[in-house]
Amino acid sequence: MTTPAIRATGLRKQFRQADGTPVLAVDDVDLTVHPGEIVAFLGPNGAGKTTTVDMLLGLTAPDAGTVEVYGTSPGEAVRQGRVSAVMQTGGLLNDFTVAETVRAIAALHGRSDRVEVVIERAHLAELAGRRVEALSGGERQRLKFALALLPDPDLVVLDEPTTGMDVGARQEFWQAMRADAALGRTIVFATHYLAEADEFAERTVLMNHGRIVHDAPTTDVRAAYGGRTLTFRPPAGAVGADGIDADWLGQVHRALEPLGVTDVDVSAASLEAAFLALTADDQPIGAAR
Ligand SMILES: Nc1ncnc2c1ncn2[C@@H]1O[C@H](COP(=O)(O)OP(=O)(O)OP(=O)(O)O)[C@@H](O)[C@H]1O
Fold first, then answer.
1. Is the CB of 25 under 6 A from ligand 1?
2. What pTM did the predictor assign?
3. Alpha carbon 254 to its chain's center
4. What ipTM score was computed for the predicted complex, to two decimals?
5. 186 backbone dihedrals φ, ψ, rounded to 5°
6. Which CATH number fits domain 1-82+153-227+270-289: 3.40.190.10, 3.40.50.300, 2.30.30.240, 3.40.50.620?
7. How far does residue 287's CA lie from ligand 1's centre (Å)?
8. pLDDT digits (tens, 9 = 90+) for 130-159
9. For the ABC transporter domain, which residue ranges apply (predicted)?
């Protein structure tokens, strides 16, 4: 059995708000990620994604529970260059060009040999001479991604890497990520965007109120919780000024076919429906849909 990229058990973290009220940001989270997996952490604002990611990287100490990254502490794994991160915030020096930034950080890591390859991987070759202050939000994130790749880590952790990007920038970012992931790197990323989990991650971990509410292959999340959507066109006589006649709808429930329903279309529910079902506060987890 290979050592997991991440093994977290019983993770818990509580913060205090300014007025002293406690907030349980992460509540008993267990997570194992195997080498080569691409995992999305998906959840609404305040779900606990960033706090979890911070604990996986050793940036925040858990109040309870343990984290191992490749069988060692997160801090040690970072020091060994086995894991690196692209965080939401984080300093880049505005006066440096892209190439100067990459060269400077590469020298710090003792990996000047990787300057060319990471610039290419992050699709930054054409921007190499541009100063950081002139980069768009998406280009800055690609630069951070390039820096994260310098130690040639086995695991890259990204915290909402495309927040604030427009659609085009987001696509470019994920193109760069996808090309890199194809080489076998383990990737864990937090996102608000259902489409990103859907398109990019094989596995989706849904978080809400500090807990993991679902953890499964992304396709299963949709299938298991989204149910199915049935759309049809009612006969003209059943549609009035106020919409579809309620009595008629009652009959539809009992017997579809004899009512002359046409254009019946059964489609898989969207990941969005699954997400809403799983994160609705009044929806018991695992309730049948
Ligand atoms: N340093 C802190 N002090 C106080 N409360 C905090 C702190 N960090 C996080 N929290 C609270 O913990 C909860 C989880 O926050 P966290 O940032 O982990 O969620 P998130 O899922 O990443 O949210 P977002 O998508 O908005 O970034 C929130 O209620 C947040 O307000």
1. yes
2. 0.77
3. 41
4. 0.96
5. -85, 135
6. 3.40.50.300
7. 27
8. 999 998 888 888 898 899 899 899 999 998
9. 6-234
